[in-house]
Amino acid sequence: MRVLVVEDEPLLADAIAEWLRDEVHAVDVAYDGAAALERAGVNDYDVVVLDRDLPAVHGDEVCRELVGAGSAARVLMLTAAAEVTDRVTGLSLGADDYLTKPFAFPELAARVQALGRRSRPAAPPVLRRAGITLDPARREVFRDSRYVPLSKKEFAVLAELLRADGAVVSSEQLLEKAWDEHTDPFTGAVRLAVLKLRRKLGAPPVVETVTGVGYRIP
């Protein structure tokens, strides 16, 4: 998934981002509300982890603008305010979930994963196609019962191809979901990841290139 973390405490923001990257998500970070709105206007995010008390543009206003613009991103609001009225206010602005500080990173990651499932059409918990089995929860991939060790990026690319259910996925779509904003779109990162993925999955090849369009697992 593509996740935007919006938090004005850099150490906390970077820690959240690293934890979510370990969960095989592509993560961008913004340290104020204005930067968050700018990134959300450029990138399609599945989930926005949004601190409420932000400089430049308050988190409430960020949430209101995301919802008002029809963004498909699910919003997980973070705040130090634990009163019921604060939670009700946050949810009434359009937030999908609410987590008070301090929080446990595993719980935050689980909530992000749950919101991400709601941001796209429902998919089975275990993905299967062409003899490949991918279990997102266990981070495991098998081909014809053979375990296939994959890097985080390879795993993310394969998951997107399997979720497409035979449809073609463009390089741009894969770049959007598996890499963050710091990746140069002209580096050939997607092509290299697909090449390595094919090699690890073995013969016969299952990832098909559709020239000028993208990739698919037919």
UniProtKB/TrEMBL annotation:
CDD domains: REC_OmpR_CusR-like (cd19935), trans_reg_C (cd00383)
PROSITE patterns (alphabetical): OMPR_PHOB, RESPONSE_REGULATORY
Record-linked InterPro entries: CheY-like_superfamily (IPR011006), OmpR/PhoB-type_DNA-bd (IPR001867), Sig_transdc_resp-reg_receiver (IPR001789), WalR-like (IPR039420), WH-like_DNA-bd_sf (IPR036388)
This protein's GO CC annotations: cytosol; protein-DNA complex
SMART domains: REC, Trans_reg_C
DNA-binding region: 124-218
GO MF term set: phosphorelay response regulator activity; transcription cis-regulatory region binding
Response regulatory domain residues: 2-116
Keyword Phosphoprotein (UniProt): yes
Chain positions found as 4-aspartylphosphate: 51
GO BP, sorted A to Z: regulation of DNA-templated transcription
Domain OmpR/PhoB-type span(s) in chain numbering: 124-218
UniProtKB keywords: DNA-binding, Phosphoprotein
Matching PANTHER family: REGULATOR OF RPOS, TRANSCRIPTIONAL REGULATORY PROTEIN CUTR
Name under which the protein is recorded: DNA-binding response regulator, OmpR family, contains REC and winged-helix (WHTH) domain
Species: Streptosporangium canum
